[in-house]
Amino acid sequence: MRKLCSALALLISVCSVAGHAAPAGKTTLRLSPPSAMLIGPYSETHLLVDSVDATGAAHDATATAKLSSSDPSIASIDADGAIRPHKNGKVRITAARGAQTAAATISVTGIRPGTPPSFLKDVEPVLTHAGCNMGACHGAAAGKGGFRLSLLGYDPDLDFESITRQAGARRIARSQPQNSLLLRKPTFATPHRGGKRLEAGSAEYRILTDWIAAGCPGPIATDARVVALKVTPEVRTLHRGDTQQFTVTAKYSDGTTRDATGETLFTASDESTASVTPSGLAKATGPGEAAVIARYQGLVTTANVVSPFASPLHRTQPISKNATVSSTIDRMVTSRLDALGLPLSARSSDGDFLRRASLDITGQIPSPQDARVFLNDKDPQKRTKLIDSLLARPEYVDCWTRQWADLLRCSRSVLNEKGMYALNSWIHDAVNTNMPWDRFATEIIVSAGDTYKNGPANFYKAASSPEERAEALSQVFLGVRISCAKCHNHPYDRWTQNQYYQMAAFFSRVSSKKGSDKGEMVVFASDTGETRHPKSQKVMAPCALINATPLAADFNQDRREPLAAWVTTPANPFFSHALVNRVWKRMLGRGFVDPVDDMKATTPPTNRALFDYLATDFSSHGYDIKRLIRNICLTDTYQRSAEPNGVNAGDRKFYSHYPVKRLEAEQMLDALSAATGVYEKFAGYPTGLTAQALPDTQTASYFLDLFGRPARTTTCACERGDDPNLSQVLHLMNSQDVNTRLAAKTGRVETLSTSKLTDTQVIEDLYLASYTRLPSTAETKRTLAAFKKAKERRAAIEDLSWALLNSNEFLFCH
Amino acid sequence: MLHPLRVTFLFALALACLPAGHATAAPPAVSYSRDITAIFRTACLGCHNNETPAGKFSVASYTAIMKGGKSGPSIIAGKSAQSRLFKLVSGAARPVMPPGGGLRPVDIENIKTWIDSGAKLDLAAPSTPMPRPVATPAAPAVSPNPIGKTISVASPVACLAYSPDGTTLAVGTYREVLLIDTKSTRVAGIWGGQADEVRSLAYSRSGAMLAAGGGAPGITGEIRLYDVKAGKETAAFGDHTDVVNGVAFSPDEKRIASGSADKSVRIWDIAARKQLALMRDHADMVLGMAWSPDGKYAASCGADLNIKIWDPTAGRRVYSFQAHDAAVNSIAFSPDGKTLLSSSSDHSVRFWNFGAESSGMLRTLSGHGQYVLAAAFSKDGSLAATASADKVVKLWKTADGANTITLTDAKDWVYAVAFSPDGTHVAAGCWDGTILIWNIQTAKLETTLTTLHRP
């Protein structure tokens, strides 16, 4: 009996160990693609082997299956798994694993004696893959050791000249190709600071030697260029520790395709979720979602690795007829969380919701009176009504004015005092009237006139050259950073240097002259002015970044009009997405894309379907920001507790719980003032003006600077800092800012200590003022005991207030 | 007849006098001078040299090696496992050296053995600089480890020079100098055995010697001297650490100056076979070298945009100025020594006043659409010729800078140009290995040769 039990136990344990990796039931092997073409002697292909289980789920078996060719003289398999051609013909490649097999056909064509490698198609990818032209080496602006290549090969003509003819042609030895410096250095036959980059005798090495032996043929105008990249598989779910091989196919302008896996630069967007080797083997390292980024010949594309936190769930409701925007948001968020197996946190408490909504919408914490009213309210619609009332407050206008003023660099040091006020009051009016965002953008883009009288014209004072204006416009309104493309093609995104200067060209006919007032600038559209490409000196025709055609050469109106039209049309995929991303980040702590103004091809959104949905909803409903905020606040997603629920503690991207966010500098100072009842007096402004309502960030305030107030020298959202440091902690603990407020004869502490309220009531009031909630029974009990021990009642109240202000519950929005 | 006992005694004596075989010291299994320097020179010296010691560590001499660097001593004699140098090359510590891992297992093993057996020096002096492959007439060295087979492709012409008597046109190309007989316009002889591409050629004033500057890029630079009458190589100087791009004889033929991609300018005593001066001032590759006709000054030009004037006897720089907006590719003195001619990758050519009183730019010639790679004076100084990456050779009057002739027969970048001493012809050499000779009077191309031509 015992023997049977232990045997049984052994059997069960074996099955359960095997169960995870190889589900019981019939598994089949699949080879993809089922057929491929190899054109020319320098092409290669990589086949993926999947083990498909009974449920239809595929698991990567590329590393464990054995490949064989039916005729190695036509195409054979190399040690690195690449299939390389030798002569024209057809072969059958068979994959075998255990008893299972799968097959694919490879046709080889285009092998003609004397066909040299193509510089564009064969040589450039080798230089990129070996790292020769990366930014740290010869792709740097000044090159290295006198040898300069274009960054990641964006300028093949320059590369061709550098390699074959510059420096007295010292890099190639035409009559002894393998002795060329171009080969000796990377194989380390000659000392090379870049180290060993190529293996002598490898396929890449042979491409270079064959190319030199053929007389170094250069790029020609009719060469086919890469027009698209595809990564296979496009998405794969992996468990932690699982691996997946990815392959990349390049499509050319002549319709041909080629496997580019061997020369693709692979990186991962989030190493905490997945890592990827230089040969495209990804491994799930933790839960979440990451993009496998593939870059080849100036194009980038991504594939997704999804690594669930736990087994998938099935909570998503079907689409209902009465779906509101908010319920749709919830459905899409939940659908994402289902796939990842993330539990949802519970609904937040009323106090937490009141506090966070007040901070997110108006930038202020609620008063104890407002808190009491809300907490006692029995109306089931009270949260909805609260959102509407917050949106109607003047503090909402101040809060959101400040955000746009940050981005538009509203600062007296940039615009002079009058310009700053003009811009600030224009933004204030715009927010107050809930100006549609497309009109807001348009008024700024086409603005003209005196900067002291026309607020939006200050955009042209803050950014003075066409290049700066194009960069500012792109970052602020499109959420796209094009500045990398000023000197070379963007290494991580699709933007070329040409596109950069085509955008700048929209602004080359904007002039300015001095206004009547000192320091005033008058902006106007002029008739002349061109932007030239810095290298070719060619005049650039204005052309928008995507889905656009260049302006006609004879266009002689204000070029900013068509620019504004393009920015605000649905054909421009960035405008609505950029705004939605900013608002979503403010409310939910992390944008769909992070950083919030850096939407790149290589940083896929955390929830693409929801992101697209909200962007379309925004643009088809009048670009109404208040409506967007309202719809987000009405969701269950927004109203969830910040308290994690089991496994979702590790979620920082998928919105399974509300995030914990440190108060912004202005929020913190205003909260400190409100909680202590002592308001800041800013130099030059009346008492009672909140930090948030300050029109620029030049008003002296050590507190605000300490907590990351931006100087408004750039248009980047990243200028506002939230890094913690010791000075901040010490300031909150010991500073005059805090101590004077506690000791003040006009503050809350004083009022409470001289009032007739009981200790318990005092404690409640302070908790409500700081935490927007009542103290728990245990907290009250503890605090009362401390009061009793205190020598002086006022000191006890001060101490309690100080303790509340120095706690995370006060300093963070949750 | 010897007594048997005496024979035995003599035999025993003879035996005792034989070398004790294993008792005498065998050559060390791994020798510093033979094995270790070979490894370090290829794999380490590029970054760890005295001029730019990465990590403050240089392997340029035994002293330097044993001194260590900013991380402390690199070698603990007898204990390879604890020696930082061995840990880095064997992968026991990071970063792996050399970057990318270029050492073979046998190299790593040799380093280990050498350290464990005491890291001994078996060279004359501990500060002896790391030996370099030096070409000598006795053993003409070739490129250290030339790799791969040769194919029949015309290598680029990097330089050319007419002999002063006009009978020979020397053409520098890959691994050899072609000697073309100007009368028959055929290749009459080949001076082979060069390390790599020959980058500059110069005849001494009397024509007795021909100097060829070259070297293996990234490894060494050499100047070889050829006795024209005897028809053979007589001397070589190999101290440069990168290719020699410019050579110039002193007018009295006793010294020769060289400018190298290693940024240094050196003066050599030909008869004594000795380096007289090593001058470092250029911030980038030196691309051309010239010696003033009065023998007092040498001039160099470089990728650092500068022209520098040197006192070759005192061994120091006398003057330096930025001559162009891009690399300066060539420099030449006018025959009367009063003018300097420079050509540049900024597409221009400039004449400079060379005199004690006022130095300054005299004239800029524009007209080439691309980098100007070479410029030369005619023997009487009345004409200048320029050669460019725009595949054009232009002739100019030096008096007024007028462009008199434009020759467009070249099909690729023109790297070199020279006037025949009698002023009747101008020759140029190109990237595609062609050597073109034009008649100046008719402005017509008379001869086309390639570097594949044999005698």
Explained architecture:
The complex is a heterodimer of chains A (814) and B (455). By secondary structure, chain A is of the alpha+beta class. Among the domains of chain A are: 29-109, Immunoglobulin-like (Sandwich), CATH 2.60.40.1080; 119-213, no CATH class; 223-307, Immunoglobulin-like (Sandwich), CATH 2.60.40.1080; 436-445 and 459-559, no CATH class; 665-813, no CATH class. Chain A is 38% helix and 14% strand. Chain A contains 30 helices and 24 strands. Chain A has a four-stranded mixed β-sheet, with no helix packed on it. The two termini of chain A are 59 Å apart. Mean pLDDT of chain A is 93; it is low at 11-23. Chain B is 11% helix and 37% strand. Chain B is built from five helices and 28 strands. Chain B has helices at 4-17, 32-43, 62-67, 84-90, 105-116; strands at 159-162, 168-173, 176-181, 186-191, 200-203, 209-214, 221-227, 232-240, 244-249, 255-260, 264-269, 274-280, 286-291, 298-302, 306-311, 316-322, 328-333, 339-344, 349-353, 360-365, 372-377, 383-388, 393-397, 403-407, 414-419, 425-430, 434-439, 444-450. In chain B, the strands form seven sheets. Chain B has a four-stranded antiparallel β-sheet, with no helix packed on it. A four-stranded antiparallel β-sheet of chain B has the order 5-6-7-8, with no helix packed on it. The radius of gyration of chain B is 27 Å and the shape is elongated. The model of chain B is unreliable at 14-23 and 134-142 (pLDDT under 50). The interface between A and B is large, with 32 and 46 residues.
